[in-house]
Amino acid sequence: MPRVHWRDEYCIGDDRIDQEHQALFTMVNELDEAIATAAPPSQIQGMLTTLATHTIEHFDHEEALMVAFSYPGYRRHKQVHDNLLAKITALLEQFNQPNATLAQDLTAFLAEWLSHHIKGEDQSMIRFFQSRANTPMTAQR
Q1: Average pLDDT, whole number, for the chain?
Q2: What is the Cα gyration radius of the chain?
């Protein structure tokens, strides 16, 4: 059973960001399933690496938009991103240790973080962008 479900309330009105968020939901759910079924460590390692890479790319995309729109909450939002990336990096380092295991607490944390972050920080950011542009974000491309 998926750990986190995509819902319309997570849509922020930017197709690219919404697709990136949906991909993150899928990756968290796949990681949760792999941990629950005791998948081989190499498979879980690959999933963690893919999740980390996608997260970095997604954050870079959001942060570039924040700079382009002179978003006043940029520093705070970037710090939130940096804090999550530090946690993911620490998890990757831990998982590289002999006999390392991951608990489903990890995916519970990621699912909660992701949904909370989208509904809070990201939706506030997009509302600011839209107010500055006075048009939907998809028209900005």
Answers
A1: 85
A2: 16
Query: Domains, the chain, ranges and CATH?
Result: 12-140 (1.20.120.50)
Q: Where are the alpha helices (DSSP H) in the chain?
A: 15-36, 41-68, 74-95, 104-117, 123-133
The structure tokens listed for 38 are: 């005791």
- Residues sharing a CB contact under 8 Å with residue 111, sequence separation 6 or more, in sequence order: 3, 4, 25, 28, 32
Q: What is the pTM of this model?
A: 0.84
Cβ-proximal residues to 53 (8 Å cutoff; 6+ apart), any chain: none
The gap from C-alpha 78 to its chain's centroid, in whole angstroms, comes to: 13
For the record, the structure tokens of 76 come out as 């705070």
pLDDT tens, residue by residue, 49-87? 899 899 999 999 999 999 998 999 999 999 999 999 998
Distant-in-sequence, close-in-space partners of 61: CB < 8 Å, separation ≥ 6: 16, 17, 20
pLDDT the model gives residue 100: 65
